[in-house]
Write a structure and sequence with these properties.
rod-shaped; mainly alpha
């Protein structure tokens, strides 16, 4: 079964996680409430981690596309230089 996508922003989830940690650190909750907050915090950590991994994957994909584009441009430049060298060499003969 697929996970439902969280509509909250990364920043909102991170802020909620910080609040959850601060609440847990106060130590004034019952054991049951602490477990509930802990579980909610773990879910937020997973969601934030998923978002970060997705962003990293997207950035890596964009970097690869850019690198491939640069390689193609460099190949074209090398071909042009080679053609110019070949044309220049033919004129001297």
């Amino acid at each position: 079964m697929a996970k439902a996508k969280d509509k909250r922003s990364f920043e909102d989830m991170l802020g909620e996680l910080i609040e959850t940690v601060e609440t847990l650190e106060r130590g004034d909750l019952s054991l049951e409430d602490m477990l509930t907050h802990y579980q909610a915090g773990r879910a937020l950590v997973r969601s934030c981690d998923d978002r970060l991994r997705a962003a990293e994957k997207q950035l890596n994909g964009e970097a690869k596309k850019r690198d491939k584009g640069q390689e193609k441009e460099e190949e074209k430049e090398e071909e042009k230089e080679q053609e110019m060298e070949n044309e220049g060499g033919e004129e001297q003969i």
